[in-house]
Write a structure and sequence with these properties.
By secondary structure, the chain is mainly α. Helices cover about 75% and strands about 0% of the residues.
Length: about 160
Amino acid sequence: MYILLALATGTITVVSRVVNAALAIRIGSLRGSFVNHIVGAAFAGLLLAVGLRTGVLRWSGIPLVYFLGGSLGVLIVAASNYAVQHAGAVVFAVLLLAFQLISSACIDHFGWMGGDVIPMTLSRGVGLALIIGGAVLVVTDRAARRPADAASASPSPSSET
């Protein structure tokens, strides 16, 4: 079940990034993030209204740091809107995944944010290193193809008159 959920979420995330980047081209990265979150909040409200409830919402006893998620989400979407336009969906996704994995490994290892401590093992470290190595290959391949981009930025012969 978790594999299917990860598959669906991963696919939806990439589609969401590309759609948000296209919106950002038209209205700007921060405005695109704003629209994304307004529509997302309305959709969450609709789901709650039609009965997809998870219980009573209680505000008391929730540490203030846990309310940062929405603010961080706005920044993440705005940054993604910009980065996907300039780096491309694959390079941005690979870099994002690599840094998410490094951050997640630290959070698990130290039990930050109230999570269980899940120590870094040799096999987990090797797996992370392989994924990060793959990210390096994708990014360096993109960097190797950059001269074509630079050539298109040079003045055309017709503009030298």
